[in-house]
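Key result, reporting period 2: structure in, sequence out.
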């Protein structure tokens, strides 16, 4: 399955979760529900996946964790904030770069209409 195919599925499940719960809940609530939806759909998904920082050739544990990693190649970062900022985008891009992933989604569930809170994030520097 390609990253774009995964992206389409994730967006559909995220919309389903949002329609059921609505905005205004804690980030962890949406993460758990989306994790459940993805897992029961048959996708391989990991929650709070650790990503090491490689510094001078050494993998260092710095506490970086991706909210959800789907099929070992697609990053999902989940927020429940008033509005997404450049810092949220930068953080998601950093996770893509550190894990050498190509594509991810930054999703802000604290929106009346979820599609306005979804950002595709692309790692153009994938090695």
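The corresponding designed sequence is given below.
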């Amino acid at each position: 399955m390609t990253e774009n195919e995964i992206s389409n599925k994730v967006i559909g499940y995220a919309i389903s979760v949002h329609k059921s719960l609505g905005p205004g809940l804690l980030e962890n609530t949406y993460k758990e529900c989306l994790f459940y939806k993805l897992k029961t759909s048959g996708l391989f998904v990991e929650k709070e996946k650790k990503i090491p920082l490689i510094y001078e050739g050494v993998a260092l544990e710095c506490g970086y964790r991706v909210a959800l990693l789907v099929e070992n190649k697609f990053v999902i970062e989940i927020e429940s904030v008033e509005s997404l900022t450049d810092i949220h985008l930068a953080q998601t891009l950093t996770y893509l770069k550190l894990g050498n992933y190509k594509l991810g989604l930054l999703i802000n569930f604290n929106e009346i209409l979820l599609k306005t809170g979804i950002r595709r994030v692309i790692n153009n520097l994938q090695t």
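Residues 69 and 75 are 5 Å apart (CA to CA). The mean pLDDT is 95. This case is discussed further under Risks and Mitigation.
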